[in-house]
Amino acid sequence: MATIESIQKAYIDFVLTQGEQPKSVYIFAKKIKMTEEEFYRFFGSFDALEQNLWTGFAVKTIAEIKTQEVWSQYSAREKALSFFYSFFELLKSSRSFVVYSIKKQPKTFATPQVFQGLKDLFENFCNDLIVEGLESNELSERKFFSNRYKDALWVQLVFVLNFWINDNSAGFEKTDEAIEKGINVTFDLFQRSPIDNLLEYGRFLAKHGGIKQSMGFGSN
């Protein structure tokens, strides 16, 4: 009896041995001894099947890292690092498919449909981290920018994905290094900096007329 997992496994085997998607659902279904109708009970297209695979990678990663005993004690930065390390560790077992899937996507600024489920889930996960970080003052609340933090983390994930598929280092140690440096730089930007203090001081002076007074124009 066909299952989501059995269809996905057969699909991965097909694209990795043939180097491309099946020409049609009919051909693929016939090859794995099922009907088109059965396939469509699970997926509306091959791209939908791939989207489900990518979303599944994120679902499994998040479920696993949240079972860690120290998870609740992690800072937002540590939780992000935990996701990235665990996500790419999981992808190692499907590296050939991941490389195939990424390389066949059109070069565009828009997120390919097969990654949309992954992006939605990842951004929801990041939103939770960011809210925690803002509440604990680990991250800086910036008007117009705080709600874009998740976008910066998505860009970081896309960057590391492309870095990883071209990484030839033993054990993909260069990817681990890219993750560490990338996440730390990103979170450094999220945190309070001297510029934030300067801007806040400027707003304070403007609000209370302190700029004029400090320049000697406060009184006659």
Helical content class: 55-70%
CATH class of the largest domain: Mainly Alpha
Q: How confident is the prediction overall: mean pLDDT?
A: 89
The CATH architecture of the largest domain comes to: Orthogonal Bundle
Largest sheet: none
Approximately how much beta-strand content do the residues carry? under 5%
What's the structural blueprint in terms of helices and strands?
Blueprint: H1 4-18, H2 25-31, H3 36-42, H4 46-65, H5 76-91, H6 95-103, H7 116-135, H8 149-165, H9 173-190, H10 194-208, H11 210-214
Helix pairs in contact: 4-5, 4-7, 5-7, 5-9, 7-8, 8-9
Structural account:
This protein is an all-alpha fold. It has two domains: 1-44; 46-201, Tetracycline Repressor, domain 2, CATH 1.10.357.10. The protein has eleven helices and no strands. The chain has helices at residues 4-18, 25-31, 36-42, 46-65, 76-91, 95-103, 116-135, 149-165, 173-190, 194-208, 210-214. The radius of gyration is 23 Å and the shape is elongated. The protein starts with a helix and ends in a 6-residue tail after the last helix.
Q: What's the quick description here?
A:
The chain is mostly helical.
Features:
220 residues, mainly alpha, Tetracycline Repressor, domain 2, 2 domains, 11 helices, 68% helix, 0% strand, elongated, disordered C terminus
